[in-house]
Amino acid sequence: MIQVSIENNFASWRVAARKCLQKEIAPDEILWICDGCDGFFENDFAAEKTDEKIYKVSPDFLPLAEALVCFNDACRFSLLYRLLFRLVHENKNLLHIESDDDVRRARLMERAIYRDVHKFHAFVRFRSVNIDDKEIFVAWHEPHHFTVERSAPFFIRRFGAMRFSILTPKGCAHWNLEELRFSEAVTNQVLPPDEAEDFWLVYYQSIFNPFRLKIKAMKKELPVRHWRTLPEAALIPELIRKAKELESKKRF
Asked: Of the residues 29, 102, 192, 234, which has the maximum number of CB atoms within 10 A of its CB?
């Protein structure tokens, strides 16, 4: 068994996977460990010279791999290498076989990442903070997967004219109007109040339509686990109560 330690990103896994593939190491002979350290191989495997072979795989594999590396499960690296090994040695069209266990599992993980990015874009709420006489907008979000780097460019396109930091337990993103950089994860942060938040709450109440309320659908699109990071979530129980009262009166 060869132990391979990599950083928690696609580039690190790709370098290690290529070396393993060049040495023809089978998937079940590798123990992948993601510990934030530089990649190393047991028995000084990294120092060994290998033939620089070029492997051609399905064009669908790279975007799939980039998504799966973000999945919050240690098995993702093993699954990815197994798919890569099978693409090279078994079937170059493997990813088109939806009934295959590995492919089906990978596609489910990929969809989970897309959903997590969508929730990231939808549920980040910025608050204005003054630091060294500069206004910085700060947000706290709790993604389920490691989707900070995939999600952050969206906020530059949307709010590129303002400095911001997005803090999460899966890593942080910072935009200073010129450069997007990432930093280590942080624990839960208590953000200062923002006067503009009151206007947002008034607006949220004004657009809430009690006659179109579907609680199950709302909780599916707005999972309860995100409520504590959203200022408007504090209004939801009361809005639901009033909606039920109106529905009850309508029946009479």
From this structure: 102
For the segment 193-225, what is each residue's pLDDT rounded down to a tens digit?
666 666 566 656 676 776 667 777 777 777 777
38 DSSP assignment = P
CA–CA gap between residue 204 and residue 236 (Å, rounded): 10
CA-to-CA distance for 199 and 195, rounded, in angstroms?
A: 8
Sequence ranges of the domains in the chain: 2-116, 124-183, 196-251
Per-position DSSP letters for 9-47, written without gaps between them: SHHHHHHHHHHHHHTT--GGGEEEEE-SSPPEEGGGGGG
DSSP 8-state secondary structure symbol assigned to residue 137: E
Residues 6+ apart with CB under 8 A from 48: 23
Give the integer Cα–Cα distance in Å for 144 and 72.
7
Query: What's the whole-model pTM score?
Result: 0.76
